Amino acid sequence: MYELPQHSEPGFWLQLLRKHGWWLGLVLVLDLILVGCWLTQSEPAPAPVTSIQPAPTVVEQEPEPEPEPGFRIGFPTPQTRLVETNSLEVYMATGSGRVESAWYGSVRTRKYRSSYLPSFHEGVDIAPTARDARGRALDDVFAVADGTVGYINRVAGNSSYGIYVVLLHESRLGEVFTLYAHLASASDSLRVGQPVTRGDIIGRMGHTSTLGIPVQRSHLHFEFGTVLNRRFETWFRGKKLKPNHGMLHGYNLTGLNPMGLFDYMAEEKRFDPLNYIKAAPVAFRMVVPTDTLPDYYQRYPALWVGEPATGGAMVMEVSEGGVPLFARAATDEEKARISNRKPVVLEVFPDILGRNGERLVVKRNGEWQPGRKAEQWLDILLYR
Hints:
single chain; 384 residues; alpha+beta; Glucose Permease (Domain IIA); nine-stranded antiparallel β-sheet; 8 helices; 20% helix; 27% strand; globular
């Protein structure tokens, strides 16, 4: 190793730097470079800089909307002006010539023995849009909704309905019916239990009936409503009555106002029987003795409200046309009003009852009581 001479004179060191300083400086620079390299290698290399990608956007799909309840309904004949309820071109009046006689409700008058009393019309009478040279109606009759054929009466003299067809339609209320009466004929291909689609031809308009409807007043009598009791045929046979039209005999059919369906037909909106019956006006309430839940409320469970049936009696709301609406178990106080297991009228709404053509309730000595017709109506409803 090179050793520096041991001299203390300043001049000596100055001469030494002048003579050897260039390479000492070079050595110093090289040392600095080597130290820098060592420091660089001892530190971890920084991670490469990359662009930051945003997280993918998750688009939440909106749930499929729940389908509207009910079903689509169409017109029962080529007549599409049913909302024009005051037109005699649209509706077939009775011999009175009053257009309202073709409507639903207590719109008619009939002779009972020596008196003329209001008469209830459970459907609506639709006039033909076309006739042949003899005045016979040419209109086809269509199923207003998808359903199944419940009954066909092909014998004109067997019923005041004449030749008629009943279709059944499933809904969240339960099974409801539509009825097409006074047909000239029912379609030959039609069979009970056969599925039908809205718009299918089920017959041709006519004037068949045991009531002697003249050809000039040919029309379609159209009804919509609920069925009182699925065991009706057994009840009917037990009474030894004729003719037997099975479960879909007119006695067992209760008609809601079909005129409320016309807006649904015209606007092609879905029709929900449950909402429709909920909106039906109540004509009267009565407490009815019964030990079990009637078949009607088993098949239309949405119409039973409150506590389960406990036996003894129920309170039932009824439409002007005799359609059982909502019902509930009677309170002890209400049960106490029943004597000899006879129904009792609790409340009547005269504005809804109107002319009271059904006469299920009548006023005697200033007090509302069940009418004679109510006996058979309740007998069918409560039969088990």
